[in-house]
Structure formats: structure tokens, C-alpha cells
Amino acid sequence: MAAVRPDVTRSRRALLRAAGCVGAVGLAGCAGLGGTSSSTSGGSTTDAPSNGSTTGRPAVSLAPVADQFVSPVDVAVGGGETFVADQVGVLHRLSGNAKTTALDLRESIVALSGYEERGLLGVALHPGFPDPPTAYVRYSAPRREGTPRGYDHTFVLSGFTWTGDAFDPGSERALLEIPEPQANHNGGSLAFGPDGYLYVGVGDGGGANDAGAGHVADWYAANAGGNGQDTDANRLGSVLRIDVDGRADGRPYAIPPDNPLPDSPYPEQYAWGFRNPWRLGFDGDALLVADVGQNLYEEVDRVVAGGNYGWNVREGRHCFSTASPSSPPATCPRETPDGTTLRDPVIEYGHGGSGVSGIAVVGGYVYRGDAVPTLDGEYVFGDWHANGRLFVATPGGDRWPTRVLPVDGLREYVLSFGRNAAGELLVCTSARGTLSGTTGRVSRLVPA
Taking CA atoms, which of 183, 353, 363, 399 is between 20 and 30 Å from 141? Predict the structure, then answer.
């Protein structure tokens, strides 16, 4: 999320160079500094001109739902209510074309400025909302007790109680607090699955290459560090699954009995080997997780219990090297020492160029609405790109054919996706890649 707009004069690449590609490396790490063409071997892709269409005719448009946000990064719907999480720390309640403050966490989160991957990052309503009347919120707090000195902040997952027109700040019940060594690669997605459990996307802890301060030594000695490959060391680089309706073993939640690592120090883990899972969602029982890449490849994974998705041994379907991230080796392990296969993504695309390419994947949903019947059953997702890019993939097999979805007038960063009560797809965008201004908006996908 950086800017290439008239009001922000430096491009994403310039911002990354200014940051030294460390600490403020962005969703895609050092993306764009050593990219490849848009054609990849990770799936069938269809390139197109920069307007996203081989014909020049857009397929869909964006109908405004709400605007005047700074950085809308998540949408939650339930019980006749719609909420939008603004990264600066405010949860908004939508009512028609108006919005009101449903929860203000600006005093609880870390100080934010410029390009950020911290803040209010996710919201999910209890499946029974408003009975029980609870929202679960993921935010970045200043270092709390148990977070080591020198670490950047504390990951907090809390529940808040609905009072009928807002959530009571005094009702906060903290479920998870996870030490975050650096400011980026935080993940932040929350989603209840059809099993009623809460799924939580957690990044690898930041910096570049899943290495450096706060990163453990994993089983793959060729790459230094690797939180996503060590499930006994911490919860970083994982998708977690917890039972928010239970309490057991001194925790404010319970561990689902079929979680794959019941004897681990961190039995919340459901799947691992992720770099920065930016948005996850369900289609029936299928869990789809978009994982932002480092230098060369973006990916979307179909996630199963106990799955290892390869980072930082692999980036997408390819080998990865911390010593030479732009020139990885031709060979690397396909499985862990205990024989667990490293799973390949169902979607992969490269950096640079037009068509199915970009710099940081943004996960979406399989479309099940009525407004755009040509998209029925297709996975719609995007890329955090200054000119806005949406893609559509056809589920099936181990490589999903992917093509550009031409959108009328989209020239903003795509931040996130949501679904309204009718199942129609919502797209969260901003004209700025930094936490400034009020260009953020939520729109609904409609036919062009």
C-alpha cells in the first residue's frame, strides 16, 4: 500500500528504496525491485493490455456504497448490520449512505503514519450476531507484557459487545496477544468458517525474507530464519483456528478438537508456511488464502488442515533464497524432513508488466451473487496496484486458470474485499497508498 498518485509524488519503488526494503517493505516485501514478466508457470494466465481488457471493453463497474474512509481494509455483515474497518483504528457502522462510529480504537493502537501495515486490520461478527452480540477485532497495540524488548508491537485479537448502536469499548475481552518483532507482514484477516470456528491470518513477523530479528532458525539451513516453518517456536506465519465459544486450559477460548497440532506449544495453528496472508475467505468448506510474495511471485492457496504452504523455502511454486531473492536456485526441498509435502498454490502470478501481474495479492471471494451472473462460481480477487487490478480465476484442479477482470474506471489501490448481506461482492479501495486523506471507499461490483 504505497502511492503513485499526484498527491503522493514518490512511486512504490521509490518508497521502498527510501525504506531500504527493510521494516517498511510493504505488503510485497521488495516487490518491483527485481520482478519478472506477468507470465508464470504457476497456472494458466491470460495477459492483457494495461487497461485490463483484450477488447478494451470493461466487464464490471463499481457502484459506490460508502466513502470518506482513510483506508478501508475489511467488511463484516450480520444481523442486518454492516461494518467497515478503517485501518486508522475506527470501525464504522453503515446505514444507507451514512456511516457512524461503532468502535474507536485509535487510543489503543500504535501510532500510525505514512505507509503502514499495522492498525485495525480485521473484523468478524460472531455467526449468531447479534445473539451473542459480539464482534472480533484484530489490531496492533503498543508492546504489552510478554512482548520482548526490541519487538515492534503486540498483535491483539479481542471481542467487543454490541449495545444496539455501537460496540462498548469497555467490554473488550482479549483472546490472543502475539509478539510482533517488526512492523510489517502482520496478516490481519478474520473469518468464521462453516464449522463455527474463527480463522485468523498471521504474517511471518516482518522484515524481508522471513529472517532477521524475531525470526527463528528452522529446518531448512540454506535460508536463515523461518517462522513459517517452525510451528513449535511461535504462531507467526500461520493460519490459526480457535473456538471463541469455549474456554479451556486457562485460555479465553478453546482449541477445536480436530486441530492438526494438539500437542504443539501453539495448538491454535491450523496451517502454516505463509509470508503475509492478506485476506482469507470461505466458499462453502473451501478456505482460500491470498499470501503476499517477496520479490517474484504472488499466490492464492486452497488451505487444508495441517497444510504447509512452503514459505520461506519456496515462493509460490518456485524455490526461494534469502541470499539471492531475485535469483533463486533451481532446486530446493519439496517436503519437510518428516515427509510433509510443501503445498503449491492454486493461483500464482508474477511481478511487473500488465495483465495478470502485480506487486501484492489481495484475496477475494468466490462470487455467489446475482448482479453479475457471468461471474457465478468464479474466484474474484485483486492486486494492490496504483492503477487498480482485479482478476478472476476458475476453480478446479491444482492450477486455476486466471484472467484480468476489466473494471470500468478503477484507478485506485485495491485494499480488500467483502460481501454484503445479499452475497454481492464489495471492493475496498483508496487513491492513496498511505494513511492520509479520505479517498477510501467501499463499492459494490455491478455489470458495466
Answer: 363
